[in-house]
Amino acid sequence: MDPLAVLKRNNVKTIGKGSKTLLFAHGFGCDQNVWQFVLGAFTDEYRIVLFDYTGSGNSEKSRYDSAKYASIDGYVQDVLDICEALELKETIFIGHSVSSMVGLLAAIKNPEYFEKLIFIGPSPRYLNAENYEGGFEKEDLDSLFEFMDSNYLGWSSAMAPAIMGNADRPELGTLLTSNFCATDPQIARDFARVTFFSDNRTDLKNLTIKSLTLQCAQDILAPLEVGKFVHAHTPGNEIVFLKATGHCPHISAPDETIRAIKTFLN
């Protein structure tokens, strides 16, 4: 694919200076702006690449293909396209939520692009299963999607603050709600189904690159047991248990998140 077309499609932006590249990948319902609270700590030492998945943020929404993005592989291809377009090598990938598994699959497929992976609130499967606690029963997700399909804005206003946590700081929930509400409802529903019905547990063992899991407390999407599962089943994975609560520590606790990332990188 033409490199310039990829950069335009995914609204790719490059800032900072340094020989090492940090590639930041946002989670469901968001765009590259969610990284605004942590970027300043890295721009003096690293080249930083930001992007929006196709269909999110200021990407070219006309390029969104519901068939292509009906599985996580479509989002994996976005990342690999960006790596190829920018000729990235030995990149440090930082992915939030579902992007943790996007990065993992991209690194398994094309390991030469990556040096290290950092997972923020990762989950290889959100549904509970035999001998696995993912956080949700099938009935929970059925109800979630019924609400989402009938009233997306209402779903966003209810769900985003719960995902953010930190009820004593309602402005954080409002910030995430604004991200969710700015997303095209149909694309958001597609992405949500890809996210919540994915199962990448068996892929964890295939990662050959060093990785870090940042696990928050009181995270309704990626509970403590899930972070421990990722750590236990991913070769070369380190885990840091943050004091931060909720699912978005890069927004709610940027200083703690920055320290954990820098410790791992250094």
UniProtKB/TrEMBL annotation:
Record-annotated AB hydrolase-1 domain positions: 22-259
Q: Which Pfam families match?
A: Abhydrolase_6
Q: Does the keyword Hydrolase apply?
A: yes
Q: Which UniProt keywords apply?
A: Hydrolase
Per the record's keyword annotation, is Hydrolase included, yes or no? yes
Q: What's the superkingdom here?
A: Bacteria
GO molecular function terms noted in the UniProt entry: hydrolase activity
Q: Which family does it belong to?
A: Belongs to the AB hydrolase superfamily.
- What name is this protein filed under? Alpha/beta fold hydrolase
Organism of provenance: Mucilaginibacter arboris
